[in-house]
Amino acid sequence: MKKWIASIAVLALILSGCTQRSADDEEIVQDDAEQEETSIVPSNRLSGDNYRMILPYKPSEARGVITRQVANRVDIDEMEEGLRRLSKDSYNPEDYYFQEGQYFDSSRVTDWIDQLNPEVEKGSDEKTFRENPRYLTHILEQNYLKSMEGGNANLEGISIGLAMKSVYEFQTDTGEPTQYEDISESEMMDKATEIAQNIVNDIRENDEELSDIPIMIAIYREAEQSSPVPGNFVAKTNVAAGSNSVDGWDDVEEENILFPSDEGQEKYYDDQERVTNFGNEIRKFFPNYVGMVGEGFYIDGELQKLRIDVPIEFYGKGEIIGFTQYVDGLIDDIFPNYYDIEINITSSQKTESLLYRDAGEDDIQVHIYD
What we know:
Elements: H1 2-16, E1 26-31, E2 36-41, E3 52-53, H2 65-69, H3 73-87, E4 97-100, H4 106-116, H5 126-131, E5 136-147, E6 153-164, E7 167-170, E8 179-182, H6 185-206, E9 215-221, E10 232-239, E11 250-251, E12 254-259, H7 262-267, H8 269-285, E13 293-299, E14 302-311, H9 317-334, E15 340-346, E16 351-357, E17 365-368
Parallel strand pairs: 3-4, 6-9, 14-15
Antiparallel strand pairs: 1-2, 4-5, 5-6, 7-8, 9-10, 10-11, 12-13, 13-14, 15-16, 16-17
Helix pairs in contact: 8-9
């Protein structure tokens, strides 16, 4: 969690243009269709498993499309970070630089979404809508570059994330009630395979500069629109340089679990019990406590990150400090340190304090906001 918070701080400086260049920073040259551009790659990165990023930071050519297409904010964050995480298996952070997608602009992405989804006219009957759901929500591009001899940085890999619906919401006509059609994972994957193949064909045929670039494709299954926790990636594949064939999928064993919940109770009983005990201990001493929401992120059934949001009404700064100190002790008593943990304490006005501990660490970092 400490790494994530530091990432945000660094990115804010990057976007504001306030970063200072170090003598050890690497200068690279990027070629685009119009000009040769000199960029900087900072010498430092937050950890060995993070990508170094090219400065000045270039937002995606399709920036903004995801917020118009993906209904649940938690899915947006998880998809972007998750695609970068999965890309590490194909593009080692030791060798590659990260850059947001620069090749597919908003118009291209929107056209793909419209063309690759079934077209149903407004006013069609319910049966037609249910038999022709819009499966595809968004197409996310990320670029991975390598430094070459002579100081050039060349594109050496692309990752594409396909956001697919788990539930299709529709109205047969304006003013009619919203209806829902569940989409099974197997049905979703059948459609995702077809969509992925069409996108790869289009790229290889129409983007000359990408004709010999490897492409990693990952399938993201969205959560329901009202879900407090995000969906997750379920499959990925690699299309070799020069190939246009999508040959099968590798399963991605990731999931985000809500605590407390029936699913949490069934799949991860011990973790749910810890979260529940944490809430019970708070309730004993703080009558203003109104409940909490926990979110566990798992890979291959192993908890990687646990985030808990604790809303409570405070009547003074001293109460906030006392409550934060109390939670600090509870973390040590209840939660083991083999996964990242983050606890946000909030009031109706704002986040009041943050406690976090990285996996393998003993010390808990605490920040109380002014």
